[in-house]
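Escalation from tier 1.

The customer reports that the assembly of two entities below gives different structure tokens on two consecutive runs. Tier 1 could not reproduce it. I'm attaching the input and our single run for tier 2 to review.
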Amino acid sequence: MITLIIIVAVVVVLVVWAVFLYNRLVRLRVEVQQGWSNIDVQLRRRYDLIPNLIESVKGYAAHERGVFQAVTEARTGAMSANGPAATGMANNALASALGGLFAVAENYPDLKASDNFLQLQTELANVEEMLAASRRYYNSTVGSYNATQTTVPSVFVAKVGDFALAEFFEEENEAARTAPQVSFDQ
Amino acid sequence: MTLQQQIRSNRWRTLLLFILFAVLIALVLGAASLAVDLPVLILIGAGMLVYGIVTWFAAGSLVATLAGATPVTREEYPELWQAVEAAAVGAGLAVTPRVYVIQDPAPNAFASGRDPKHSYVAATTGLLEIMPQRELRAVMAHEIAHVRNRDIRTMALAAVLVGVLLILSDVLLRVLVFGGGRDNQNPLALIGTVVALILAPIGAVMMQMALSRRREYQADASAAEITGDPEGMARALGILDTDTRQVRHVARATAHLYIESPLVKGKGVFGSLGGMFRTHPPMEARIAALEEAGGFMLDRESLAADMPAGVVTTVQELS
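Tier 1 run:
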């Protein structure tokens, strides 16, 4: 009788424990998904700004067609990329294309001084900052999600449940480095 | 400590805090029952209960009112908004807290609210004036960390409970002094009651302060994680420490909410009592903790050399 009680108690404890671990994995997965949708919002803001930016530069430097095309193509590539890793790569390409656009803009003092261009630059700098913040959060949640899946004891629960390692979102923040620092000070 | 552990430990501490205060209030009422008539006591107790419940639900806006903070739009303060939004996104908050500004030349900031969805962060105009972009982001990340770690709820509860206990002891003391007490009472019981009524609020305030000190280290560390820039946080603390100005309108009950202690620095009653009544650890200790975690050394000389214009270092007369 006593043995039976002990066995039942052990089983109950194990089940409760497994449920606890499972719930933790689910919660982390939700956090990863939320983190990714945060990044997605910022990426969309970035994609939306680019056509305006191109228009703005075109007004002063219409003949620099190569640069515009490179940026447009990189933007299309980034928008059609799937998954964090691929999106990160595509956005690296976009960032370096944008770097080229800003390098062109450097040669046109009138453009650099125009209100429209300055405003777009400020907005882009804001988006880059938010993107960097959301990337940090996303990557840290992916880190703990993946670590939980691969370490004992939660690894056993992860194997049974529907969990997969999440991809990191790596992006070299080239656009942020090449875009001139914008100051709000008057 | 991971974020989840931190939130869980905050939940436990909130409960513990609540129990401890319940015990303290029971003790105060018990001590008072030796000297005050029961109907009077029940009336006062009921009044305090109502007061506590009302202040708990009004806690968020009440703190803002006490501090003289008013909501501002993105157009008015674009840089502050951007800093708050970036920190909220970096912290993974679902809702960006509202942004408030306090018209006060002393640099300081705080966060408050009942939970992350009903929260706000407030900065003084002095902070906006002297803090460069990098350091402003760090300060806002520190406030957002308080929101995310659920510190604000614990602290709001602490403020309400301390307020209740302070008023309760005060009212009971007055009742004892100005009549309302029993006619033929034991003088020893009376003395005991008075001592209990004086000691209880002091104990409550000390508890509140001890709770708040640990949180500041945690919020500094979380802020460094949110911005990915521990040195920026350390620099911001260094600037706050250098500036000697104090925020004008601070109720003692809300002192623990600010990033830098808004109470008299160094000397004075609270300074000389040592760490017991401090709401915040010394800045040097906070900077040292960041240095250790971030693996860097804050270059104090270069920070002192390019101290932002507008930082006031002269000792002011306290009015």
